[in-house]
Amino acid sequence: MATQLQAPESNTASEKWTVDYVSALVHFRMFQVSLIRSESIPNLTQRQLALLFIVYSVPVRLCVHELAKQMGVQKPIISRALSSLEQLGLVKRVRDSHDKRNVFVSSTETGRTYCYKFLTLWMAYFDM
User: Fold this and answer.
1) Which member of 17, 48, 49, 85 lies 3.0 to 4.6 Å from 90 by CB, making a disulfide possible if both were Cys?
2) Residue pair 78/66 in contact by the 8 Å Cβ criterion
3) How far apart are CA 14 and CA 125, in angstroms?
4) What's the whole-model pTM score?
5) How high is the mean pLDDT in each 10-residue block of the chain (128 residues)?
6) CB-CB neighbours of 104 under 10 Å
7) DSSP string, 71-109
């Protein structure tokens, strides 16, 4: 059952924020649908996309446990998402030579290009 949203009659700051927030979510969802229909970049899950942008935005290599901590999930969840991203060539994992328990993650050139294309499509969609 679809729920239709209506703008509140009152213009209080909290009600305006709620309407703006819902509007932003609706626009983001429409952007996601248009992205899925696009064949210019591969489709990623929300978790994969968030993980890729974290790796992309940090100039140093991150450990898997640091990524798990930042995203608030367990390491196996990050490892599964990284496996998919690695298969697509968007990230690379390198085992620490000093401590074999640590695995560092960094974006590849393909991953950086993906992020650039995604942001370009985002800006074009929202006419920024």
Assistant:
1) 85
2) no
3) 27
4) 0.69
5) 43 54 73 68 83 90 90 92 94 89 91 87 74
6) 15
7) HTS-HHHHHHHHHHHHHTTSEEEEE-SS-TT-EEEEE-H
